[in-house]
């Protein structure tokens, strides 16, 4: 299990490099899974890019709601975006997007409802698949990581409010709007 890199580390702003398949590729996939899912099987998040554990390679994991599995994306390219946008994460009660590398911060991000992705699987085979709704949102978020883009950059670009988790005087959690500069 690797340590997840957070916002202040400039590696998150780097563009990742293409993956050249070798013995380390399977180990990196295993490391990403071990970082995202603890020994008890509890999931920390719905996606994780290699850059978030300090490896600048084009690889990420994304949860598929339809298959209920973590999918592996290697050297991905989003080759088509639908013009229809979502406002927040589809198929969830909590529409706010967050990130393991930006803990405690949330925003509603507009993303394409459907996308087509060309990518390699963990065995190196190329495929093209269409993804929709929640899975499409997760893939777009992780794909941004490969290009040094964070969800808060998207929020600022879209002029969406950004929130942090706070507690009131009764210790009840709520989202408080913050300004990033």
UniProtKB/TrEMBL annotation:
Active site as annotated: 142
| Annotated residues for binding of Fe cation | 99, 141, 145
Q: How is the cofactor bound?
A: Binds 1 Fe(2+) ion.
Q: What is the lineage of its organism?
A: Bacteria, Candidatus Shapironibacteriota
Task: Name the top EC class.
Answer: hydrolase
Q: Which GO terms describe its biological process?
A: translation
One annotated GO molecular function: metal ion binding
Q: What is this protein called?
A: Peptide deformylase
Question: Keyword Iron, does the record have it?
Answer: yes
Q: What is its EC number?
A: 3.5.1.88
Family indicated by similarity? Belongs to the polypeptide deformylase family.
Q: Write out the entry's keywords from A to Z.
A: Hydrolase, Iron, Metal-binding, Protein biosynthesis
Cofactor(s) for this protein?
Fe(2+)
Its source organism is Candidatus Shapirobacteria bacterium CG11_big_fil_rev_8_21_14_0_20_40_12
Q: Give the InterPro entries listed for this entry.
A: Peptide_deformylase (IPR023635), Peptide_deformylase_sf (IPR036821)
